[in-house]
Automatic annotation (TrEMBL):
Protein name: Enoyl-CoA hydratase/isomerase family protein
SUPFAM superfamilies reported for this sequence: ClpP/crotonase
Originating organism: Marinobacter aromaticivorans
Similarity section: Belongs to the enoyl-CoA hydratase/isomerase family.
Amino acid sequence: MTDLIRLDRDGPVGILRFIQPKKRNPYSIAFVEELVAYLRDAERDDAIRAVVMTGGEHFSSGGDLVGFQAEIAKGARATSEMVDKVHDGGRAAYLFRKPLISAVCGVAYGAGLSLALSADIVVAAEDARLCEVFARVGGCPDTGSSWLLQQRAGAGVARMLVLTGREIDGRTAKDLRVVEECVPAKQVEERAFEIACEIAPHPMFGVQTAKRVMRASAECRYLEALDIERDTQSVLLCAHDFPEAMKAFSEKRKPEFKDR
């Protein structure tokens, strides 16, 4: 590991900190490798029940265009392999099994915005600067933004932001449903942490299953979603936490969950 990312722990919440804010946390291959490794560590750590992802003063300025030039110069095959490596970061964040919350201050451009949107919940500063910058530099969306943005804001808004390359602030992002919450910059990390703490006490098997169901059903038709819900809920109904919740309800007491 280098000095690009750090994983802190505050009770049941892991805080994944990008620690190059003066450079605006560029999305380099080295950054991706550390991101993947730390997400893997957080997933294995049973004491961590939710993770906040933050870049401090700036979330991420996006792809390390200077660093990418050497690979691009090698031709199409090397470039394709490089882009796939870059995608590993968003892939790891999107597939992270535990709840993941992005705390976005400053800039979130290109791949940096894609990374923020790969989380389950995004809290943005009112004056954060979000931009699908790809069209400005002669590129097209990558790192999952073409799909993620349409999932959150709808096709029309996504096309407008991608084709114009328009920068929007946190307030506008909230209005357009690109992010879930918008607060003053000094409160962003605190608010993301509060949401993580709100989730953390819940039985983890149920939370992880609910997250998987929500992701899967968003990518299929209604009747397929019903099948997904049936199959996963049937497992949970027979697990140890749901029966305990039902028993506690009937006995008018607080449930004693094992999966904590």
